Amino acid sequence: MILDGKKLAESLREELAAKVSAFTAKHGRAPGLEVILVGEDPASQVYTRNKEKTANELGIRGVLHRLPVDASEETVLALVKKLNADDAVDGILVQLPLPKHIAERKVLELIDPAKDVDGFHPMNAGLLASGLPALVPCTPVGCMHLLALSGVELSGAHAVVVGRSNIVGKPVAQLLLAKNATVTIAHSKTRDLPELCRSADVLVAAVGRPEMIRGDWVKPGAVVIDVGINRVPLEGGEPGKTRLVGDVAYDEAKARAGAITPVPGGVGPMTIACLMQNTLDAATRRIASR
Ligand code: NDP
């Protein structure tokens, strides 16, 4: 089974558009998402434009703030403070990476946890780890939707998550644990990774190394979620031409897996859809908490 994230994201977006329109009718204002981009990193420009565009297509008031690459840390912190204080703003997202002269942690920790739609604030990470309602990072939530689509029974399953970043590996492990999977988190110091992966009923790869996970690391019938997005040179193509591959050697793994996400078209498209869901959730919770 090929887990089609593009199609799943589309149906999620349709459902969300209806929910956003009900929210707006009920509260007399649309949910608001403010995205901050510092600098001109080409990938970040594409991501932030897509976030603003998708928000507006769904009826969310999406605003993109572009700051120059030499914007000072104080300028970024002052903008976050201003958005924290603005009652019409439900979600604040600071696109990473930030230029080197700005302390990423300082900026992320200033965001009001109730508006932290990326779920990167330590308060939200702690709530998630405690099994309490939290704003959860978008890519891990997307992974869980894809696992639900696969139909795999997570309770009692052995899930191996390769990668322990705060953005993907750790939160996806928490979400799997909350679904009663037995979770192993692997990283660069893990011994005999191939053998560990072969014991996984559910294998989540979030490593950032092109096609590192080979087909014979996959247990026959396992569900494989490939979070990796890596650009590699296109064989036989013009110099400079690239293609996208995941962290899993897709053709090899597809032959053994019961279900697998492709790259592109798997986890990637789910991330923005889940960001929109987080924005609506943040808006709904903020109003309910008054
Ligand atoms: P990080 O670089 O923050 O983390 C990578 C993790 O992989 C680390 O925990 C690292 O271990 C581990 N690792 C590195 N090399 C090995 C190895 N040889 N064996 C085992 N583990 C290893 O990456 P992210 O979590 O931010 O992203 C992972 C991938 O997911 C990237 O390709 C990224 O582009 C993609 N991504 C995709 C998104 C989407 O929307 N689809 C969103 C976010 C990320 P250690 O901690 O020991 O260094």
What would a concise description of this structure say?
The chain has 290 residues and is α/β, with parallel strands linked by helices.
Structure description:
The radius of gyration is 19 Å and the shape is globular. Helix 2 crosses helix 10 (267-288), helix 6 (138-150) crosses helix 7 (169-178) and helix 6 packs across helix 10. It has helices at residues 5-27, 42-58, 73-85, 104-110, 122-129, 138-150, 169-178, 193-198, 250-254, 267-288; strands at 32-38, 61-67, 91-94, 158-162, 182-186, 202-205, 223-226, 230-233, 242-245, 259-260. By secondary structure, it is α/β, with parallel strands linked by helices. Helices cover 43% and strands 16% of the residues. Strand 1, helix 2 and strand 2 (61-67) form a beta-alpha-beta unit. It folds into two domains: 29-112, Rossmann fold (3-Layer(aba) Sandwich); 138-266, 3-Layer(aba) Sandwich (Rossmann fold). It contains ten helices and ten strands. The longest helix is centred in the N-terminal third of the chain and has 23 residues, at 5-27. The strands form three sheets. The protein has a five-stranded parallel sheet with strand order 5-4-6-7-10. A three-stranded parallel sheet has the order 2-1-3, with helices on both faces. Strands 8-9 form a two-stranded antiparallel ribbon. The chain binds NADPH dihydro-nicotinamide-adenine-dinucleotide phosphate (NDP). Residues 139, 162-165, 167-169, 186-190, 193, 206-209, 227-230, 267-268, 271 line the site of NADPH dihydro-nicotinamide-adenine-dinucleotide phosphate. NADPH dihydro-nicotinamide-adenine-dinucleotide phosphate is lined by residues 139, 162-165, 167-169, 186-190, 193, 206-209, 227-230, 267-268, 271.
